[in-house]
């Protein structure tokens, strides 16, 4: 349940206290906002408040349904398919040029606990290592930090001369194998920078893709003594950004299927900031390190579809094998599990649906192994070969500085 209270304003999240100015984010475009309910009937504000039903329809569709009740994944949740990981390690590499011990601003056990709540069918572990932010590493980091304000890339035109891509080029494309061990089915590389250089940017973190087709790659997170003094530690940011890596979006930006529109809370969709008034680590309100019930239900639905789709891929490979008939009993069991998954899905028991879908998938995975049908093994070296260009999920501490 999500309660949208039209009489609870004026409030700051959606800037609905400002009835005079059409453009509140200063980009020369009007920002559509929903005023407190008593303002309806006023025709003298920055826009006429004469369509209460229409405004509530916008909130219902573009906030409640699209952003909370049935979100679309921002990354493909079928990580390293067709053999999906059971054991996922969050590999936190702390790079600092000064400051306190990482244990004072990062809680690895908490990070694993909260991610497991989002994906209870996977085993999450964390590993934290520390490195000095000096030499070439420090140089690349400074190029990246200065590039946020128009500085030059350390890599010239290698990646469109964009300094923002320097972390991708150095840590992911060129040196990733120096930071990972391959001791889990899948490792999520997290590069956590503790440095005063990010004080002025407000950049909290981002979940990067491969700059080609949108496949998730690594997570970058930032903290400094300046923000730590305000109680802004690193665990929230890592949980939030890894949530993106696993497919979760913000409750203030998303996708509308009918119009095929990917939107952020600005201009005609400025009112979408209302979605942040949900107790979720994916919100910009920073009131919780937990994923909301909406987040967990959405992930369970996504995983139900993911496991069934991957099970169908395995099924095709098994049937195509001359030895496929020898595992008929396993195929029948998997089919029963998938059928039960869809039944539970229709009953809105999404956790049960995901578990049954996983059972169907794992049954077929074992059947394929029994008849020597080759399925891509979980090789972390192969998982981290990347190419490319696509939108980013970039998060700033200042909740009005959203860029995607």
Please explain how this structure is put together.
This protein is of the alpha/beta class and 404 residues long. It has 3 domains: 1-72 and 259-284, no CATH class; 87-248, Collagenase (Catalytic Domain), CATH 3.40.390; 295-378. The chain is 34% helix and 13% strand. It has helices at 52-69, 108-118, 135-147, 166-174, 225-228, 235-245, 293-319, 328-346, 350-370, 380-383; strands at 87-96, 123-132, 186-194, 203-209, 216-223, 254-256, 261-263, 393-396. The strands form 2 sheets. It has a 6-stranded mixed β-sheet, with helices on both faces. A hairpin with a 6-residue loop joins strand 4 and strand 5 (216-223). Helix 7 packs antiparallel against helix 8 (328-346) and helix 8 (328-346) runs antiparallel to helix 9. The two termini are 28 Å apart. Mean pLDDT is 90; it is low at 384-391 and 398-404.
């Amino acid at each position: 349940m999500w309660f949208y209270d039209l009489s609870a304003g004026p409030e700051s999240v959606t800037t609905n206290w400002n009835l005079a100015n059409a453009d509140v984010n200063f980009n020369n475009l009007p920002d559509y906002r929903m005023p407190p309910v008593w303002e309806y009937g006023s025709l003298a504000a920055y826009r006429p408040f004469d369509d209460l039903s229409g405004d509530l329809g916008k909130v219902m569709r573009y906030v409640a349904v699209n952003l909370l009740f049935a979100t679309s994944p921002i990354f493909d949740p079928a990580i390293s398919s067709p053999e999906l990981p059971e054991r996922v390690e969050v590999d936190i590499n702390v790079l600092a040029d000064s400051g306190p011990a990482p244990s004072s601003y990062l809680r690895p056990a908490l990070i694993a606990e909260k991610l497991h709540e989002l994906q209870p069918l996977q085993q999450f572990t964390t590993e934290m290592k520390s490195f000095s932010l000096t030499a070439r590493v420090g140089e690349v980091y400074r190029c990246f930090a200065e590039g946020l304000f128009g500085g030059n890339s350390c890599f010239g035109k290698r990646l469109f001369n964009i300094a923002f891509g320097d972390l991708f080029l150095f840590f992911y494309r060129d040196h990733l194998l120096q930071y990972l061990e391959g001791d889990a089915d899948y490792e999520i590389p997290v590069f956590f920078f503790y440095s005063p250089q990010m004080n002025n940017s407000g950049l909290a973190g981002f979940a990067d893709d491969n700059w080609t087709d949108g496949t998730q790659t690594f997570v970058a997170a930032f903290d400094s003594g300046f923000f730590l003094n305000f109680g802004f530690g690193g665990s929230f940011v890592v949980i939030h950004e890894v949530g993106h890596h696993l497919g979760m979006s913000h409750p203030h930006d998303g996708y509308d299927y009918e119009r095929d529109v990917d939107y952020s809370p600005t201009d005609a969709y400025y009112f979408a900031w209302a979605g942040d008034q949900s107790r979720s680590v994916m919100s910009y309100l920073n009131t919780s390190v937990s994923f909301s019930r909406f987040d967990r239900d959405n992930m369970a639905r996504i995983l139900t579809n993911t496991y069934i789709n991957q099970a169908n891929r395995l099924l095709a490979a098994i049937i195509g094998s001359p030895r496929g008939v020898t595992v008929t009993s396993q195929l029948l069991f998997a089919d029963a599990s998938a059928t039960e998954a869809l039944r539970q899905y229709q009953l809105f028991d999404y956790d049960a649906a995901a578990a049954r879908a996983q059972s169907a998938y794992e049954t077929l995975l074992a059947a394929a192994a029994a008849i020597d049908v080759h399925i891509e093994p979980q090789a972390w070296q192969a998982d981290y070969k990347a190419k490319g260009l696509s939108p980013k999920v970039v998060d700033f501490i200042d909740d009005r500085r959203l860029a995607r």
